[in-house]
Structure formats: structure tokens, C-alpha cells
């Protein structure tokens, strides 16, 4: 096993710069998830680590080796692709043994490695089958098995669950976590699904437009997002963002003219400064309380145990989503009082960067 | 069975009959006695079937030599065409190199030029190379047909890049990827292409006629044409010659039609 270090990775495709100076350090044994919207450069970064793309600039180290110019097979990595990329004419056994056979490994050693990996993934009964005779989940397991057999220093996963249905995704997520606990291999995992990122990662790297927006543990990123993009990317329903201006006495005025109390800022801002106020849907409290504001329920999404209320405020204010336990007492058209506790508020400046508050 | 299905079956049977009738009559005439087919109206079946025409064909006419020439040239043409066409088609589809798409467009544009137009310059080139009147000269046009390259390239495009990348990560060289991953996946198209080249080179008349001067080097179609000019009245022998020419490729086609047809169907599903 080994850690991974990427320094100032840049990649151009023609005149388009896909990676704009990305630097990452992944500790030995860490499960790191790169998450971001389509086209943010996360897959290009992963493919560069694998050696499938050549960086325009920058260095990649795996353990104590600089692997920047090495062929994929010499980097000590194994990769699992979104489409599984199994060899269709070979059996599961042959698929898993392929790399070792190419390396002209001893037959007994190959057999032991394949059977060990098959045992870990519970695919021993499938070894004689061809990929066409397997279900999506089984194919994904074989793809992982093929990676395990190589005993890599780093596992690379490129959206491995995207082709599976919702149920299987949940199960495979659990299996990935279990597998990582069992093997302890350093893992770099790319996904656009924030739920996968939150549930699997030791650390999350959020990317946008070829740059890293924020790096941290899932809890850190959720509780202290560095900017509006990260704040809204993680969490479902996403964080509410309300346009406001700073007022006197530690308060802000919303676009509709109503006033709410803010947490105290580390660097106080003068009155009249435009800012954005973020609050997660589950942090809004419904019910009469000092400072609560009246809202009208425009739409209710009932999810069984939970309900998401879509609240309309005054003219000029953005609609607000609020999530709460559904007791069936609220109806569309009702007027409710909603409290925005200052301790739950996230403040962002006019460029979308977070304004540090005391007590966080 | 509904009336509609009956009529479709009947129509298909009729079309099959019309198609196969000349072939059956060809075999029938080849078994007739000399002069029997020249009667009017021509008989459908031989009154007393005989193999005399085949004996003459392989005896005094020496068709065995031409049959061997045809087998040799068609087999070599098929082997060489596959050897050059498959890597070329694969490279045009999956490898990144400068000028790839421009070169491919140029090749495809050349498809619209009739083959006959290239025959004279090709002949002059081969003459300069000293390959006229040789098996090598007869083989040259088959080395890397553009249609074959196009066919392989189009099929290769359906191979996922990720599969090849997985093989690269697994440590396979480009040659190993072609041999161990791509070729097995290409099996249906290889059979199709091999059949196409074999049939085309087997039936080819014009190029062997131009390039081969020595009678010993003649292929079956050229030899039969030369023979028919001398023995234009010998329908029975001519038909025996036609059977000898047609039968091997017919058997080959029937033996491989399972793969050939499956490929055609795959192509239609994939669009």
C-alpha cells in the first residue's frame, strides 16, 4: 500500500483546460472520494493517475515513486470502470487471471490469487461463467475482483455504481465500505453522486470546472462548506440560499424586507454589504417562536416518514425548502411560522465564499 | 397458419426456386452425355447420368491444376487481406495518431473509384516490380482492401475504449491487446471478411486475366473462359467446369453462414 500525491496537475484537450492546477494528497489506506458535476475534470484526474491520460503539467507520486511518465501497468494501480470493462470472451476466472497471465505469473500463484479474490467477493460459483451470463451487480463484483487480484497499491474507481439500479447501488455501497475495511488499500473513488461520497469517504474532494473547491471529511464539508457551490452540492434537499444585505445590530435584511438575526462574524461587515444566507432544510424549525417569520406552504413532497415543505415568503424572496417529520397535520396553502436559528446559518459574501462566524 | 403467412411462404419458395433453378440445371447438364444439352427443347434431366464430363475436365483439360491455383490464390489472398486489414481497421478506430481521420477519409473517398480504373496503373507498377505473370502479382490487389478496412473499423468502434484501457492497466502490450482481446471480439466480422475476400478472389476474372500470361498459372474462371472460347459448343463440359468453380465456395458459404448471418443480424441490431 502507499499514499498518493498529485502536484499542480494540469491537462489541456486542445485549447480547453480541463484540469487547472490540481494538488491532492491521499494518505496511505485512506478512502478518498472525488465528487463534482459532469465535466468538472474528476474523471480526467483519475485517468491521469491511472496513466490513461498524459498530464500537460504536474507530477504524480505513488508511495515514494514518481509515476508521472510510467505506463498504466507500471504504476501499481488497479482501476474499476463504470462499464465494468470485462473481457466478454473470457470466463470470470480468465478475466480475473488476465493481468497475472500477461505478467507470466506462476499458475499455482494465479489460481490462489483468483480464488482468494473470488472468496472475498463471494463470486466463487461464477468463476466458469462468461460476463454475458452475469447480472449487473455480479459483473461489478468481477471487475472489483480483477482489481483485487493485481494486489495494487491504489484502487481507482470511476463511477462504479452509476450503471446499477437504486437498490443494488445501496447494497454495493455497503460492500465497498466493507471491502475497504477488509483490505485497507488506498482508494481514489470518483462519483457525481453526493450520497456515495458522503457515505463512503474518509475524505471528500469537491471539484468544479477543473479546480478543487474544498477538501475535508464528509462531516466537515457538510457542516462548514467553503462556498455556496459546496454548500449546495452536498445534502438533499440542497441548502437554501437567500439573498440579503447586512443591517445594524448583527442582523440582515432579506430581499423581501424582513429581518433575521445573524451569527457573529469573525470579520464584521459594514451595513449595506450584500451577502447570501444559507440554511439547510432540516435546520429550519416550524412553529411559533421569537423571531419566526410567516411563510405559506406552496407544495408538500411527502416521502413517508419525512416531508419537504416548499415555502413561499414575501415577494422578492426565494422559495425555501424545509424538511421535517411528517405528521400529516400540514396542508398546501397553510401559513406557518419558520425559525432560522442563527447557529444554523451559513453566510457567504457576494462572490459566494464563506464568511467565517464565531462558534463554528 | 393464416392466409397471409401462406402467401409469404409461397412467395419465398418461388423466389428460392427461381434462384436455385439455374444451379440445379447446371449440375444436371454437367451429368449429361456430350451433345445432349444442345437438343431443342433442352432436357431438364440427363437421360443416363454420366461423370464423363468431369473425367474429361480433370483428365485432358487438366482442370485440377487451375483448381489448385484458385485455391492457392484465394487462400493466400484471404490470409494476407486479414493480416493487413484487421490491424489497419483497428488502428483507424482505436489508436490515436496524427492524420488518422484525414487518411481514413481519403481511403473512404477512394471507395467510389471503380476498381477497373486502377488496373492499368497497378499493372504498370507491378510490371516495373517484375511481378507480372506471378502469383504475387495476382495477390497484390487483395492485400488491404479499403472496404475490409472500413468494415473492421466500423465494428471496432463498437468495442468500448474502457475494455482496451483495462487491458493496458492489466499490462497487455498493444500487440497482446489486438491478439488476446480484440481478435476474439472481432470473430464474427473476421469470418464475414474472410468469406467476402475468398469469394471475391475466387470469382475474380479480370485481374488474373490481365496479370497472368502463363497458362499454368491460370485460375479457374480464366481457364474456363479460355476453354469456352475454344469449345463453345461443349455445354456439358462447360457446366461441369462451372460446378467445379461454384461448388467449393458454395460449400464454404453454407458451412460458415451461421457466423455470417449472425454478424449481419448483429449489425442490424446495433444499427
From TrEMBL, chain A:
Keywords (A to Z) from UniProt: ATP-binding, Hydrolase, Nucleotide-binding, Sugar transport, Transport
Coiled-coil region: none
Domain ABC transporter: 4-234
GO terms, molecular function: ABC-type transporter activity; ATP binding; ATP hydrolysis activity
Matching InterPro entries: AAA+_ATPase, ABC_transporter-like_ATP-bd, ABC_transporter-like_CS, ABC_transpr_MalK-like, ABC_transpr_MalK/UgpC-like, Mo/tungstate-bd_C_term_dom, NA-bd_OB-fold, P-loop_NTPase
Cited PROSITE patterns: ABC_TRANSPORTER_1, ABC_TRANSPORTER_2
Top class in the EC scheme: hydrolase
Gene Ontology CC terms: ATP-binding cassette (ABC) transporter complex, substrate-binding subunit-containing
EC number: 3.6.3.-
GO terms, biological process: carbohydrate transport
Record-stated family: Belongs to the ABC transporter superfamily.
Protein name (record): Multiple sugar transport system ATP-binding protein
UniProtKB/TrEMBL annotation, chain B:
GO cellular component: plasma membrane
Keyword Transmembrane on entry: yes
Membrane topology: Multi-pass membrane protein
Protein's recorded name: Multiple sugar transport system permease protein
Transmembrane segments annotated in the record for this chain: 66-92, 104-123, 135-156, 177-199, 237-256
Highest taxon above the source species: Bacteria
Pfam hit, one: BPD_transp_1
Alphabetical list of PANTHER family matching this protein: ABC TRANSPORTER PERMEASE PROTEIN MG189-RELATED (PTHR43744:SF12), ABC TRANSPORTER PERMEASE PROTEIN MG189-RELATED-RELATED (PTHR43744)
GO biological process, one term: transmembrane transport
InterPro entries in the record: MetI-like, MetI-like_sf
Organism this protein belongs to: Sphingopyxis italica
ABC transmembrane type-1 domain boundaries: 67-256
Amino acid at each position: 500500500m502507499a499514499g498518493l500525491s498529485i502536484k499542480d496537475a494540469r491537462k489541456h484537450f486542445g485549447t480547453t483546460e480541463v484540469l487547472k492546477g490540481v494538488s491532492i494528497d491521499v494518505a496511505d489506506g485512506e478512502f478518498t472520494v472525488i465528487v463534482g458535476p459532469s465535466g468538472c475534470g474528476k474523471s480526467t484526474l483519475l485517468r491521469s493517475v491511472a496513466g490513461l491520460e498524459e498530464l500537460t503539467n504536474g507530477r504524480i507520486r505513488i508511495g515514494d515513486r514518481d509515476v508521472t511518465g510510467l505506463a498504466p501497468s507500471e504504476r501499481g494501480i488497479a482501476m474499476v470502470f463504470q462499464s465494468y470493462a470485462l473481457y466478454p470472451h473470457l470466463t470470470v476466472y480468465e478475466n480475473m487471471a488476465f493481468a497475472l497471465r500477461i505478467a507470466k505469473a506462476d499458475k499455482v500463484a494465479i489460481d490462489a490469487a483468483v480464488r482468494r479474490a473470488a472468496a472475498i467477493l463471494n463470486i466463487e460459483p461464477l468463476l466458469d461463467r462468461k460476463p454475458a451470463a452475469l447480472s449487473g451487480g455480479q459483473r461489478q463484483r468481477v471487475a472489483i475482483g480483477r482489481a483485487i487480484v493485481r494486489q495494487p497499491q491504489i484502487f481507482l474507481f470511476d463511477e462504479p455504481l452509476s450503471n446499477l439500479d437504486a437498490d443494488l447501488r445501496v447494497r454495493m455501497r455497503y460492500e465497498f465500505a466493507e471491502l475497504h475495511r477488509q483490505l485497507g488499500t488506498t482508494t481514489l473513488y470518483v462519483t457525481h453522486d453526493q450520497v456515495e461520497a458522503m457515505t463512503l469517504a474518509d475524505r471528500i474532494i469537491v471539484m468544479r470546472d477543473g479546480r478543487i473547491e474544498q477538501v475535508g471529511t464528509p462531516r466537515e464539508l457538510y457542516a462548514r462548506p467553503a462556498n455556496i457551490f459546496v454548500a449546495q452540492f452536498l445534502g438533499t434537499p440542497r441548502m437554501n440560499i437567500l439573498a440579503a444585505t447586512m443591517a445594524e445590530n448583527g442582523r440582515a435584511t432579506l430581499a423581501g424586507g424582513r429581518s433575521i438575526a445573524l451569527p457573529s462574524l469573525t470579520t464584521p461587515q459594514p451595513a449595506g454589504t450584500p451577502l447570501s444566507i444559507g440554511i439547510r432544510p432540516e435546520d429550519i424549525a416550524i412553529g411559533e417562536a421569537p423571531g419566526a417569520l410567516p411563510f405559506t406552504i406552496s407544495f408538500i413532497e411527502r416521502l413517508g416518514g419525512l416531508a419537504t415543505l416548499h415555502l413561499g415568503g414575501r415577494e422578492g424572496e426565494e422559495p425555501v425548502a424545509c424538511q421535517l417529520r411528517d405528521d400529516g397535520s400540514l396542508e398546501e396553502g397553510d401559513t406557518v411560522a419558520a425559525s432560522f436559528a442563527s447557529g444554523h446559518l451559513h453566510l457567504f459574501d457576494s462572490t459566494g465564499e464563506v464568511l467565517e462566524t464565531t462558534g463554528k | 397458419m393464416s392466409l397471409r403467412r401462406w402467401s409469404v411462404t409461397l412467395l419465398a419458395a418461388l423466389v428460392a426456386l427461381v434462384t436455385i433453378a439455374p444451379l440445379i440445371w447446371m449440375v444436371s447438364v454437367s451429368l449429361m452425355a456430350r451433345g445432349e444439352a444442345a437438343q431443342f427443347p433442352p432436357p431438364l434431366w440427363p437421360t443416363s447420368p454420366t461423370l464423363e464430363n468431369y473425367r474429361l475436365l480433370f483428365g485432358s483439360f487438366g482442370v485440377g491444376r487451375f483448381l489448385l491455383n484458385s485455391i492457392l490464390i484465394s487462400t493466400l489472398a484471404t490470409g494476407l487481406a486479414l493480416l493487413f486489414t484487421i490491424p489497419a481497421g483497428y488502428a483507424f478506430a482505436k489508436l490515436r495518431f496524427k492524420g488518422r481521420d484525414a487518411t481514413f477519409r481519403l481511403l473512404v473517398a477512394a471507395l467510389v473509384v471503380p476498381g477497373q480504373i486502377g488496373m492499368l496503373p497497378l499493372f504498370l507498377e507491378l510490371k516495373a516490380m517484375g511481378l507480372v505473370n506471378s502469383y504475387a502479382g495476382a495477390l497484390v490487389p487483395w492485400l488491404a482492401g479499403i472496404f475490409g478496412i472500413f468494415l473492421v473499423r466500423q465494428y471496432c468502434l463498437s468495442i468500448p475504449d474502457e475494455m482496451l484501457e483495462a487491458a493496458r492497466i492489466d499490462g497487455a502490450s498493444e500487440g497482446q491487446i489486438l491478439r488476446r482481446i480484440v481478435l476474439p471480439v472481432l470473430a464474427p466480422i473476421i469470418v464475414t471478411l474472410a468469406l467476402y475476400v475468398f469469394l471475391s478472389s475466387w470469382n475474380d476474372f479480370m485481374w488474373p486475366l490481365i496479370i497472368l500470361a502463363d497458362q499454368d498459372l491460370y485460375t479457374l474462371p480464366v481457364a474456363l473462359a479460355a476453354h469456352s472460347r475454344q469449345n463453345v459448343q461443349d455445354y456439358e463440359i462447360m457446366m461441369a467446369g462451372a460446378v467445379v468453380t461454384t461448388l467449393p465456395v458454395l460449400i464454404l458459404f453454407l458451412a460458415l453462414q451461421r457466423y455470417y448471418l449472425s454478424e449481419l443480424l448483429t449489425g442490424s441490431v446495433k444499427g
